[in-house]
Amino acid sequence: MSIILIFKILTLASCIISSILVVLTISRRKESSPLKYYFLLMIAISVYSISYLFEISMPRLEWSIYCLNFEYIGLSCIPICWILIAWSYSPYDIDKDKKTKNYLYLLFIISLVVSLAVWTNPLHHLIYKDISLIKTPYNITILKYDRAFGFWVANIMLVALYLI
Predict the structure, then answer these.
(1) Residue 141: how many other CB atoms lie within 10 Å
(2) Contacts by 14-17 with C-beta closer than 8 Å and gap 24+?
(3) What tens digit of pLDDT does each residue of 51-77 get?
(4) Whose CA is closest to 114, among 79, 150, 148, 144?
(5) Which of 16, 77, 113, 139 is spaced 20 to 30 A from 107 at the CA atom?
(6) CA distance 42 to 48
(7) Is the full-model pTM beyond 0.90?
(8) Cα distance between the two ends of the chain
């Protein structure tokens, strides 16, 4: 078995596991704050992993870029969901403190801005200067891109959210 096939199988396993966790938490998410945010985290991970699996499987550049755009929706929400989970374990109840909860929800503006920048990249090339498709002999496609300034800004923001 080739390393690429193992990679695809592991990526598929990630998709399946995160999707199963979404289904398992959907009915119980109202029982606790952390579970509610865990549910959102699993949705974000599912969107990211499923989009990535499709990206590496697409034979055409346009389709791979479309999948890459969806990846950023999930990818940019993951650290925010982690912050919400961590905050829900704080000594005071996040659901009762509406002001703090609203401030934390404002973090999703970062996710929205990053996602919009990626989706509109062909208009301004702030995230990627150029994207091309490399097809490997193992039937996997790899996007090769020249990162622009906006990519590094978005990356720094997402890493900062992870560090928080």
Answers:
(1) 18
(2) 14/45, 14/49, 15/46, 15/49, 15/50, 15/53
(3) 999 988 888 889 999 999 999 999 999
(4) 150
(5) 16
(6) 10
(7) no
(8) 40
